[in-house]
Amino acid sequence: MQGSLYLAWRYLRHHWIKSTILVASITLIIFLPLGVRVLILQSARHLTARAEATPLLVGMRGSPLELVLNSLYFGTGSPEALPYSDVDALDSMGLALPIPLYTRFRAQGYPIVGTSLDYFAFRDLTVSRGGMFAMLGECVLGTRVAEQMGLGPGDAVISSPESVFDIAGVYPLKMRVAGVLAFSDSPDDDAIFVDLKTAWVIGGFGHGHQDLAEASAASGVLRRDSTSITANAAVVQYNEIMPDNIASFHFHGDVGSFPVTAIIAVPPDQRSSTILRGRFEESSGAAQIVVPSDVMDELLGTVLTVQTFVLAAVVVLGMGTLATAGLVFGLSLRVRQRELMTMTKIGASPASIRWLVVSEMVVVSAAGVALAFLLTALTASFGPPVIRAVFL
Amino acid sequence: MSRITVVSLVVICACAGGDEPRVSTPKDGDGTPHAIVTNYPLEYFAQRIGGGIVQVEFPMAGDGDPAFWQPNADAILRMQSADVILTNGATYEKWIDQVSLPMRRVINTSASFTERYLEVVGTVTHTHGPEGDHSHEGTAFTTWLDPGLAALQAETIAEAFSGRWPANASAFQDNLTALRADLEQLDQDLRSALTAMRGVPLLASHPVYQYLASRYALDLESVTWEPEEMPSERAWRAFRDLLARHPARWMIWEAEPMPEIRARLRELDVRPLMFAPLGNRPTDGDYIAGMNANVRRLGAVAAQ
């Protein structure tokens, strides 16, 4: 038997191109369905984990999927905004801790997430360098944002204008980096966090400017009487919030009308969650409440349906490949008729010759299976980071 | 967003996620109940009610007026780590819109009587942009000068402490009862001292006595003078005009005015009367002692 294995091994080495193709084919036949399944299961687990860690999400009526993807993964395509008064209304119900999110803006492609301090406790996020944002105009960076932008505490990051052609639009705000968050292996690593009020300043709902009562601001004054000063467009507005001008920053209008894109609602127990959902479902208001894990389960159901089609295609392809491999073996036996006859003439028994051929098939198959399992293990270990590095 | 796009992106999106265990933020401090306040009266009330159970911190350094304090990032980070942040409300903390605080832990101690807020009149508004007229004027904020309102603020503090640390609720309630008794006594003393001044024209060097005047029906008009800064001749002319229509003989000051001001006031037959608002810590004594000193000075004037 050892002799048969040796002869098989020598034969396969001699015909290495054919052997390699056969091993690669078998590897792919096994790896493709296994690898796809592992990757999808991992992805589903990660998606579900983030969604399950977010009990309820309130947003404007519309696509629940867009609301969940924007609020959990900070994707582009900001959902329609809710008024901030909805946060207060939710709080006053006493059924859940409301955590507002305002994710409309970006800085060099990274999402700027305006939120409250409760968000960090809720997501178990800690600051690894510097400190938490304390003053208007400060931000904390996710780990990967800090790494990729080469920024740390004390540096600055500038919000991106929404459109270069919108000269009357949102002014860029230069924000001081107060700290960098510890690595959490989540979308929070790829975001820039600011206080909700800082996000509103970026959105133009608040601003700071020269003291119009001072002589230096005379050119910015359109009209002045005993009780009021009317400024013109020349008044100097600050695009960076610093200790010497922070007192001039203020908001105009009713804070309750200011926008948030979503509210994470964290009920203390299942009963509160059920009552809260019931109230939204009974209401004919403009807001909706969704359970992110339900939305993601629905999405994953679609993904798994697609996976079934992919697997069916791979199985059909595999069967075709196996048939081709069998054909290759069969044809090679016919080509090797003289070689096998020579072996018979020099005294090899028919059983030895059968063992030789079987050994070749076993070696090729074993190598293909081993390689497929190795690739599957590698995919399980390194698939998400590699995909993240290549695509994100 | 199309469903196909979403489905095709879902694996990529999900790969950004992970399920490794995360390290929780360690709780700041040693677990001692910790409250931060924004002025001295609140510090005094919180200390009386907390009774040593709650560590009360007033982070403003120096002897300035806390109403015009601009806390720095360190002070705000201290507040972020506190269990309870007690604010005076009534626009006292003008910086509150410029900082990041855990709003559920911020207790506005005057929230229970917002309908009794008094407006500061005569401030300047300005207009720019599409929003129309707006004003930076505030509400009168020295609420604690009305002992009745001060008692309501103390009740809010006791309620906040009891809600946060229910095991000590009865101790907080007992301490509140004692404080409320002191404030009621102060109210009676002030009423007695000010009875003779009811309806008598009075002046104040600063517009900070609105709640005192409102509670005790004082006929009070204010200017905006500093005790250590000589007013301009224009201000003195306006003062004479004011005296012509509001013939006051006493002018209430937050601190002793400089001798030159006293001399000019004497020429106009106006005598200064010190009434410390106690927004910041007194150099000696406490809130009740400081207010009692105010009562004694008022009593001496009433006796004349």
Would you summarize the structure shown here?
By secondary structure, chain A is an alpha+beta fold.
Note down, in words, how this protein is organized.
The complex is a heterodimer of chains A (392) and B (304). Chain A has 392 residues and is of the alpha+beta class. Chain A folds into two domains: 2-47 and 299-391, no CATH class; 56-208 and 249-290, no CATH class. Chain A contains eleven helices and 16 strands. In chain A, the strands form four sheets. In chain A, strands 1, 3, 4, 5, 6, 7, 8, 9, 15 and 16 form a ten-stranded mixed beta sheet that branches. A two-stranded antiparallel ribbon of chain A has the order 2-14. In chain A, a hairpin with a 2-residue loop joins β3 and β4 (110-115). In chain A, α2 crosses α11. Chain B has nine helices and ten strands. Chain B folds into two domains: 34-121 and 144-184, Rossmann fold, CATH 3.40.50; 196-303, Nitrogenase molybdenum iron protein domain (Rossmann fold), CATH 3.40.50. Helix content of chain B is 40%, strand content 12%. Chain B is globular. Chain B has 304 residues and is α/β, with parallel strands linked by helices. Classes of the chains: A alpha+beta (392), B alpha/beta (304). β12 of chain A pairs parallel with β5 of chain B.
